[in-house]
Amino acid sequence: MLEEILQQVQTGKLSVSEAKEKLATYEDLGFAKVDHHRKNRQGFPEVIYGEGKTKEQIHSIIKAIRSKDQNILVTRISKEKADYILREHPEFIYNETAQILYWKKNINGKESYQGYIAIVCAGTSDLRVAEEAAITAEALGSEVRRFYDVGVAGIHRLFDNIEQIQQATVSIVVAGMEGALPSVVGGLVTHPLIAVPTSVGYGANFNGLSALLTMLNSCASGISVVNIDNGFGAAYNAVLIDNIAKKGAKKG
Amino acid sequence: MLEEILQQVQTGKLSVSEAKEKLATYEDLGFAKVDHHRKNRQGFPEVIYGEGKTKEQIHSIIKAIRSKDQNILVTRISKEKADYILREHPEFIYNETAQILYWKKNINGKESYQGYIAIVCAGTSDLRVAEEAAITAEALGSEVRRFYDVGVAGIHRLFDNIEQIQQATVSIVVAGMEGALPSVVGGLVTHPLIAVPTSVGYGANFNGLSALLTMLNSCASGISVVNIDNGFGAAYNAVLIDNIAKKGAKKG
Amino acid sequence: MLEEILQQVQTGKLSVSEAKEKLATYEDLGFAKVDHHRKNRQGFPEVIYGEGKTKEQIHSIIKAIRSKDQNILVTRISKEKADYILREHPEFIYNETAQILYWKKNINGKESYQGYIAIVCAGTSDLRVAEEAAITAEALGSEVRRFYDVGVAGIHRLFDNIEQIQQATVSIVVAGMEGALPSVVGGLVTHPLIAVPTSVGYGANFNGLSALLTMLNSCASGISVVNIDNGFGAAYNAVLIDNIAKKGAKKG
Amino acid sequence: MLEEILQQVQTGKLSVSEAKEKLATYEDLGFAKVDHHRKNRQGFPEVIYGEGKTKEQIHSIIKAIRSKDQNILVTRISKEKADYILREHPEFIYNETAQILYWKKNINGKESYQGYIAIVCAGTSDLRVAEEAAITAEALGSEVRRFYDVGVAGIHRLFDNIEQIQQATVSIVVAGMEGALPSVVGGLVTHPLIAVPTSVGYGANFNGLSALLTMLNSCASGISVVNIDNGFGAAYNAVLIDNIAKKGAKKG
Amino acid sequence: MLEEILQQVQTGKLSVSEAKEKLATYEDLGFAKVDHHRKNRQGFPEVIYGEGKTKEQIHSIIKAIRSKDQNILVTRISKEKADYILREHPEFIYNETAQILYWKKNINGKESYQGYIAIVCAGTSDLRVAEEAAITAEALGSEVRRFYDVGVAGIHRLFDNIEQIQQATVSIVVAGMEGALPSVVGGLVTHPLIAVPTSVGYGANFNGLSALLTMLNSCASGISVVNIDNGFGAAYNAVLIDNIAKKGAKKG
Amino acid sequence: MLEEILQQVQTGKLSVSEAKEKLATYEDLGFAKVDHHRKNRQGFPEVIYGEGKTKEQIHSIIKAIRSKDQNILVTRISKEKADYILREHPEFIYNETAQILYWKKNINGKESYQGYIAIVCAGTSDLRVAEEAAITAEALGSEVRRFYDVGVAGIHRLFDNIEQIQQATVSIVVAGMEGALPSVVGGLVTHPLIAVPTSVGYGANFNGLSALLTMLNSCASGISVVNIDNGFGAAYNAVLIDNIAKKGAKKG
Amino acid sequence: MLEEILQQVQTGKLSVSEAKEKLATYEDLGFAKVDHHRKNRQGFPEVIYGEGKTKEQIHSIIKAIRSKDQNILVTRISKEKADYILREHPEFIYNETAQILYWKKNINGKESYQGYIAIVCAGTSDLRVAEEAAITAEALGSEVRRFYDVGVAGIHRLFDNIEQIQQATVSIVVAGMEGALPSVVGGLVTHPLIAVPTSVGYGANFNGLSALLTMLNSCASGISVVNIDNGFGAAYNAVLIDNIAKKGAKKG
Amino acid sequence: MLEEILQQVQTGKLSVSEAKEKLATYEDLGFAKVDHHRKNRQGFPEVIYGEGKTKEQIHSIIKAIRSKDQNILVTRISKEKADYILREHPEFIYNETAQILYWKKNINGKESYQGYIAIVCAGTSDLRVAEEAAITAEALGSEVRRFYDVGVAGIHRLFDNIEQIQQATVSIVVAGMEGALPSVVGGLVTHPLIAVPTSVGYGANFNGLSALLTMLNSCASGISVVNIDNGFGAAYNAVLIDNIAKKGAKKG
């Protein structure tokens, strides 16, 4: 494009000032290369962190996004706020356990890709975070399988499900208390595992610090960690990995 | 196999006690399903953590592994210990910066897969951890590209390289001091990013705690974190992800 | 049992497919050896952690357990929730200080065993945790003696009771504030002592951290520690030890 | 004895002042009841914490104890110091891994009691603490079985040994890094389990804090915790419990 | 008393069994020497920590103490609870800022002793703790002078009052935020100074930890520290020191 | 002045007692030199920290200050309290986001000085602190430019504004979460930068500790840090620096 | 410049490909606007952090910089390493207390500007950090005045110097132990104050954490803080502020 | 004195300039009132903190002080440095355990005062700190009694000495590990008690933090705390209190 402009200047088709203006735009696009990979994110919803925003604030953000016909994912949104949105947008889906409200433009056609994300946790107390991960991953377009009662203290329940977990493309393992579950699962699988400490526990748990340290210090290989209670972040990561597998599958 | 044994009992080909013995083995293999996915790890080297082991201990572990013709990777091994091993195993490769000694049985043939792992760090002080990640990833069979002078404080150097980093399958971003680099890179790429805090710094750095917290709290999506200075762990993770891409590429 | 099945196949009493089905169960029981020691826990109630569960949730869990005629222990359950359960299960016992609701199928006949668990604490502020331990131990079938006003600051009250404490099979010592009581008791007894830090205190107490560290650092021998406020865990431990003594007493 | 003195006063065999003197002694023994349970500790060695003491200091303490023909256990003593003691006391036994030097007066005759303490750890790096526990327990008179390669990351090795661990009277589980092993073992056994965090690890391990918190927060029942690296303390506890079982066995 | 009993035995006035019973009491008093210095505390009120107790509980404790005609000091008691007590005990005095309710039997006659406790703080935000100290000290019988607006940031106000502070027998210096005031005052006085960190502040104040550490690390000599917000403890200490001065003054 | 007084004494114009009185004042002014630089602060408002004060308390402090015709700045004051003040002082200005209420006596005439303070933050969640800084700086007499949507994760928005930020006299950069923004801005500007960590975040953010440590450890030069959420303190600092520039501009 | 190139193309002085090449450079300079404010830093030396670099590494970095005739400042460099450099560069200046080696191209001519940076600390133990700040500021071109024995515990020494400190343009206050000095100085000056905590102290000092928290929580206005022991960072900041004053002075 | 000067001016005995000079001194003494209470410290030695100073530095400080015939106390001074000083000052006394070197001008005549400071600790590991306290107190002129083997774990040894401890004017209680001793002693005495945590311990002791927190949280009244290992500070405090008692005794 630069060459073209210069030739037009050379041949008099463009005056110097016209060329300057065009090149100014061009130069302003200098930074654009920073952003052009973002296109890959197309199909990903705009994400709104609902905590600390009023229902009106959330609503007006949603309106702005919807005008661009973009998918939407609102995390940490209470039932009361969600109901407010749902009155005007009944096509939205709300999951109360996950505290997530979302809307997806198009359910894609049948895919050949068979992979899925395994979401593993020990019990009902970690459910909110596990579901935040599960719903996020689904909203971002991945298949999810839930393994929700497979804690360390009753390890045989984990073994009953281990083959299905092993066949996942990537696992998200959510654990509070002592946070040992990712270490155990990590020793049994050969795919990437994203560990999510939760703030569930009491006493010397220190709001999830105990589980966080456990996971960072895991002696099993293939484990990386996200912030305490950050089910969304874990799912985002897992979907990026799952998409790599998908891309391969599509080629195949 | 169970059916076969039973039929042989039925037809008298096996006595009850012979069948019992065979099934005992079978039953002992009951746990085997736990381990059978490990086959996927074939080709991966046995990993020895060299710190705190004498050169003689390392040597005897190596001998045991070599008898099985298995690849080997020794991390956190000093030059002095490595020299000792190299005298008997001159075919091994030692990287002093990474403090890694390794041996790979077979350099695989040309692959069609063009993907690579980007390893990003700010400067010379984080080099040891970055190289631990790089050499580990290479020893585990992945292509690596190094971006080693792209810190936050001189951000234009990062932009000079950003396109190459964006085209990687997965990034490892190593940072000490305030640990802000993964957040910046994370905002510019659309692939999974593994952040490695290092213990480089002083004062209120608290041996890497500062960088670790920064990374866990990153507001960029797609970032997961491994333990302080754990270049090996980051690489292991990245290779698992890279292998997912490879598998797709092979299919294609 | 395996031999039996094989002989039945040999003699034609079982077809191959029938045998396979039976052995399938057998093989599924492969993991059962992992669990078979659990039988020792018979008589132990199912434990439900009441905090964070609604009264309806607790009720439906109780119904499921009662159908198996199993003993039940609900910890951290408020009076209001307990009243809800008691309306349908008036045979249950609720202890408000301990915040425990439980039911025991059979009060065992007179035992020859004379041992007991001593539960020691300094004052009214640690009572909730001490009673959680006491009621738990009683619900699990142990004899308990309470020593509830024997703090470090008025040590003569401890000495008035020391002989009875010394004759216990195992002691649980509950302490908040500076948590020094286990060290003092630990120097005076020759049986195992389980220390429970409580979150009682203010200022630099840091929600029980102060007491926890004190107990972990105790220079008296024979002390082990459970989590802050974990009266239940201490009692569970103590009962396991008490049961060892009981088993011996029964033999004698 | 009091009655005797009074009768002698009554019958004139003792003058008032003579009786007073005798009773003074008696009264001084008032505190003795505090200490009389210590007799139960007979047979237990005197314990010397070797760290920070010179070999000459250790030697002179040993001489003082030996004059009372008492068993001796020196913990945290280096080979160089131990050699110094062994030159004069060749009958002592030194274990270098455990850093323990000890002497036992009499190896007791055959006992009917078959119980033992299981000492479980994941690998070579936790060996020093595990051996401190093992040697201490043996020196205190208990039978010990070692399970030293049964970590969480390769959980099948734990299962190969689980039955023997389950049959122990009490377990000591030693773990560094993320410290998850006690939670897993705790879910599989029905006897008391003493967890020992070790300072083995790096990065966000914080000298064992990570493992300590994991163990305190364990969701498995029956676990209590001792200080970081405190193999001695765990063994002391375990032996107290084992002695309860022994006492029962002797009665039987 | 012992002699008396023995003489009665000698002379037949007491039977052996009667004497035994009396001496048993005597022996029980064996520990009494532990407690006999407590007499020095006469005149000191019984102290009740009001936080976490209901008004009814406080009331019944007060009734028990009043029956012994003992002085009373209730700390951390809200106005609402105090009003409840005052309805039945209108002779009590309540100080709302200090959250203290107390009653003193007798206002002692004129003393020759002129000493006083200086209570120093920076501003209105530390007032509650300063007043807790002041009222406590007064209730315990000491003279108090308040210096309540002499912070570090406006140091000239401190200097306007420094001579009066210097002439105190002992100072209590209360400070939140950065807690620097005790260091400054400590450099200007030659009497003992008790520093009280308060939880006043925000951000990296960590509920008083900042001020606590500042005071412990003070480079001025003659400073000792009590727990965060512990105005009562500081006053108790200061009164003990003031009483030493008083005793001397009385002698003089 | 001293000489004058002495001459008047010498010449009898002043009696000794009159001179003494005058010198007393003089001596009292001994400390005055400590305070005389305060004159430079003229024009600066009196600052009232509103949190924890009742509206009545704030009102009476304001009345006292207004009697001296002094500018006023109340920080951390809720809308409800501000409304109460505004009813009597309708000339006051209240900013709800910043939670600041203030009054400035005189809007100074046109200045030649063109400098300004850049206030930079990433998003809506840090707005309260950023506005506290902005309104404070304006109330203290500085020009302010706001850059409120320029976070690290979307770094191109920062670049769109970087020239204006670079031309500021001094920058205040407000950031929560991982707190990386000051490092990035610090690498792009050549003027002093004051970093303000906020308590915005969750999980391992620890109420702003994460951001605080990040900023203290920044590898960019020219950055200093104030307390968590301390927008006021940052602005006060920035205005002091801006005033240095102003003074120079006025001279010029 | 763009216009010039385009005119040359228009007039045929440049071919399209020549213009393209020139503009390529121009476009590459697209990011240059990011960096163009750096020119303001001219005269500032290149800074090398000496710790952890060998003398050879430092030497070769110096050689590279000297080829550009640039000023140089090496911090945290030991005497032994400095001597090595000095042998080849005898024109360099080394300050052992500050551990700084530097070289300045040109000592600028007499300036009209009279301002200076006050560097304040309490005693000999903080000297290394204070001198790192002082030498850095001097090497960066500012006038420095040292006030090195003015601690909080002996506050009269501070007052003897307070007027000179007050007349500085900016102060750097260095303090270890409890770190209270900045609060006191901050209450007495009306210019910006940069506080540097040092790691000097013991016990609950926690390597400077105590002083750091004190300074962050200071109730005096106008204080900002740099990292523990970061004398260089404080000086860099102070010089940026001093340069603002200089610029004004030059204009005047 | 001011009046006197003025009268001399009035009467012509002093010229104005002479008076000015005298008053200048007087005015310079303006701050002196700040310092005049220091006279009370006469007899107290100058204290030099030896750690981190060379023997030559210590020597030259000593020479400067000796020229004023002042008592001297050097703390934290190694034997090797002390020997160097002792060669020139053989009249000095060195205590190696306490690491203190001191010199006292005059041993005062017989005093009527019988009071003493009790220094209490548990064992040999806390000896260095206890002796630092003891020698300091003696060097500052107080009588000291040592109770050095009275730990919490063997509490009967404490009771054997409790009466003597109770009769002290003030106690210093030194404890490492769990730091429970001050709580126990504090419950048995009625005089002020200064608690000194030591850094003795391991594991979760965190260099004395555990003992420090225990002491701050003590539920016994009359306890205040100094920094970890700060035997000197405790002694300085105790001597100030002891001097109050002495002053009274002298009057009497």
Automatic annotation (TrEMBL), chains A, B, C, D, E, F, G, H:
Superkingdom, natural source: Bacteria
Pfam families: AIRC (PF00731)
GO molecular function: hydrolase activity
Organism: Bacillus salipaludis
GO biological process annotation, one example: 'de novo' IMP biosynthetic process
Annotated ranges, domain PurE: 115-247
Protein name: Nickel pincer cofactor biosynthesis protein LarB
